[in-house]
Amino acid sequence: MEELLKKYKSVIKFGLKVCAHCGMCANSCFLYVNHKDDPTYTPAYKFLNSLGYIYKKKGNLSKEDLERIKELIWKKCVLCTRCYCPIGIDIPKLISVARDILRQKGIDGIYEN
Amino acid sequence: MSFNELYFFVRGPLALVAFFIFFVGLIYQIFFFFRNTKKIDQKNILIPLYLQEELKRVVHRRRGIFSLDNDFWTTIITTFFHLFLIIVPLFLLAHNILIEESWNFSFPSLSERLSDIFTAVVLFLGLVLLFRRIFLSKVRAITTFGDFVLFVLVYLPFLTGFLAYHGLYYKPMIIAHIICGEIMLVCIPFTRLRHMLFLLLNRIFIQSEYSFLKAGKRVYGRVVKKV
């Protein structure tokens, strides 16, 4: 996991530190548009609370953390790459890095039918 | 220390230090941007979006026109907020007189009345954006305490400048104005406010659907030297 964090350090760092928390990405996410009363579907929320959290904790995650992040990046995001960031942050890339890190921990999201 | 001494201290040495940290910080960030990105030849972008389509998606969101949760209005509000935020300090008459006195050159100036109106617009739109941050659940969910600190940091120079121009406690207010402005300048390269710089860097140089004029040719990641 440290390797992955190191490999993607630049994209993680620039993504997390440049995000202005403006919330303009929300309406570009079709999952958010269909769950308007649940702000956890906002793309910025998804990457700040998955990869941002992993990066802040430097990978020391409890089991509950992993479960929460798993739900966030598999159930609440399908990586359709349609999210739009005015500042140009590559949100799908950040989510896919978070998925990579969780897979390395042995956690995989399985879509239900 | 009298007001006059304090005034000459904050507009002299302290201002120089603030400008120095601001510009060095920006150069440092640009240097690290280019060090941490690399140029690639192949295009990884599958679906090209062009300017008309980008405009279409903004216009498409005009539904729910009186709602704060409306990207059409948010786009207009943030555009004018940021535009005046940069135009007013650069082209303000009083700032240009100070620059002329110190370095013998100056930018063209707006009329005082016009910059007064623009400042009022910045103050009003700033409040709208603050209310949006507080009352919209999707924005509140990603808001941290630091965001409010940064908002105050950006808002105070405009508020103090506006009050000083209208003659409220002129002397202490103008000193507060200069100090607030200097704190803001110093903070820009090292806090979230760096989105001022990275908006341009990301969208001009990074390869993405939304890169300006499809010109982006770089991706994040360091160049790996072959042994």
What does this structure look like?
- The complex is a heterodimer of chains A (113) and B (227).
- Chain A is mostly helical.
- Chain A has one domain (2-104).
- Chain A has 7 helices and no strands.
- Chain A has helices at 2-7, 9-18, 30-34, 43-49, 51-57, 63-75, 91-104.
- Chain A is globular.
- Chain B has 227 residues and is mostly helical.
- Chain B is built from 10 helices and 2 strands; from the N terminus they run H-H-E-H-H-H-H-H-H-H-H-E.
- In chain B, helix 1 packs parallel to helix 9.
- Chain B is globular.
**What is the CA-based Rg of chain A, rounded?**
13 Å
The tally of beta strands of chain B, per DSSP, is 2
Order of helices and strands of chain A: HHHHHHH
Q: How many helices of chain B in DSSP terms? A: 10
Kindly report how far apart the N and C termini of chain A lie.
Answer: 30 Å
Please give the largest β-sheet of chain A. none
**Low-confidence parts of chain A:** none
* H/E topology pattern of chain B: HHEHHHHHHHHE
Give me a quick take on this structure:
Chain A is about 55% helix and about 0% strand. Chain A has helices at about 1-5, 10-20, 30-35, 45-50, 50-55, 65-75, 90-105.
Spell out the blueprint of helices and strands.
The complex is a heterodimer of chains A (113) and B (227).
Chain A: H1 2-7, H2 9-18, H3 30-34, H4 43-49, H5 51-57, H6 63-75, H7 91-104
Chain B: H1 3-11, H2 13-35, E1 37-39, H3 51-60, H4 71-90, H5 93-103, H6 112-135, H7 137-140, H8 145-165, H9 170-187, H10 195-205, E2 218-220
Antiparallel strand pairs in B: 1-2
What are its keywords?
heterodimer, A: 113 residues, mainly alpha, 7 helices, globular, B: 227 residues, two-stranded antiparallel ribbon, 10 helices, 67% helix
